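Bumping my old thread because nobody answered last time. Still need a sequence for this structure:
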């Protein structure tokens, strides 16, 4: 199998149709179909399930994809090493981020980085902690922002402490007044559906704060909007609240708690040159802005 075959497989897995993959790669749909069929013949098993609506990975295809990503990433690393050896800064960096980092830090980070390294392109993937962690492990992204608690077995460099705050409707307390567990326990909560931030869950568990909620939403903006309208209170990382346009009050919590945001990469000692350059740029940006953690 060739690198082109691997790229075809990866692209089809990402976009879900042969036609769209052909557009992305500048090939014909028949060439895409032939590449996948030849790959399956060589492997001895099917990697895709075809249907009228498109294609999906088989179980074997899902197991194969991380290895294909690793091969393609290694090829990219080799190209970047050769470019760096020749005195050039070229390549692509695939970066995973969650929402509050994406809105608060990424515009400045990307702008300053591309001013210095015009030949290095950045591909951005936004998702939840769990999604970013999965992308790092599977090789879909080269590095990503995570909270230290969500990184688990992924190596991570801690960069920034983000305190948790209690968000309440206007007039609930004196503006800026500290709120403790006993006071929070008296209020209805607005929570995010399925699960909330791991650090928020940890705070609730450690302080035996049993949340009562009839409102289970999917994003920060909706959560705070319901708080503004008096449907309850919520806990949020302070950085999240920089993006919120609604009129609410933000209160320090007692006991204090927070999350530590860091930069995670599976193999810190074996980063491709462009990835290492981006890694160092991000670390310098955060430390210059907030100081070393």
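Sorry it took so long. Here it is:
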């Amino acid at each position: 199998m060739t690198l082109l075959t691997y790229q075809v497989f990866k692209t089809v897995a990402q976009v879900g149709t042969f036609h769209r993959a052909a557009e992305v790669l500048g090939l014909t749909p028949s060439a895409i179909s032939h590449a996948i069929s030849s790959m399956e013949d060589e492997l001895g098993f099917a990697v895709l399930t075809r249907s009228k609506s498109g294609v999906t990975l088989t179980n074997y295809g899902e197991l194969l994809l991380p290895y294909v990503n690793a091969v393609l990433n290694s090829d990219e690393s080799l190209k970047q090493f050769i470019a760096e050896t020749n005195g050039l800064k070229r390549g692509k960096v695939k970066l995973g981020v969650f929402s509050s980092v994406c809105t608060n830090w990424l515009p400045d980070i990307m702008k300053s980085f591309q001013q210095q390294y015009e030949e290095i392109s950045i591909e951005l993937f936004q998702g939840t902690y769990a999604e970013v962690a999965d992308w790092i492990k599977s090789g879909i992204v080269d590095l990503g922002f995570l909270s230290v608690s969500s990184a688990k077995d992924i190596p991570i460099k801690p960069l920034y402490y983000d305190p948790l705050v209690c968000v309440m409707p206007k007039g609930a307390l004196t503006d800026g007044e500290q709120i403790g567990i006993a006071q929070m326990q008296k209020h209805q909560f607005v929570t995010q559906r399925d699960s909330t931030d791991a650090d928020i869950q940890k705070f609730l568990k450690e302080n035996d704060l049993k949340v009562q909620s009839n409102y289970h939403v999917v994003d920060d903006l909706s959560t705070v909007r319901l708080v503004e309208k008096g449907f309850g209170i919520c806990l949020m990382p302070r950085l999240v609240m920089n993006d919120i346009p609604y009129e609410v009050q933000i209160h320090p919590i007692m006991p204090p708690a927070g999350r530590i945001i860091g930069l995670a990469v599976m193999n810190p000692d074996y980063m491709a040159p462009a990835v290492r350059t981006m890694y160092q740029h991000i670390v310098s940006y955060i430390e210059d802005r907030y100081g070393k953690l």
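Residues 1-85 form a domain with the Arc Repressor Mutant, subunit A fold (CATH 1.10.10.10). Let me know if any region looks off to you.
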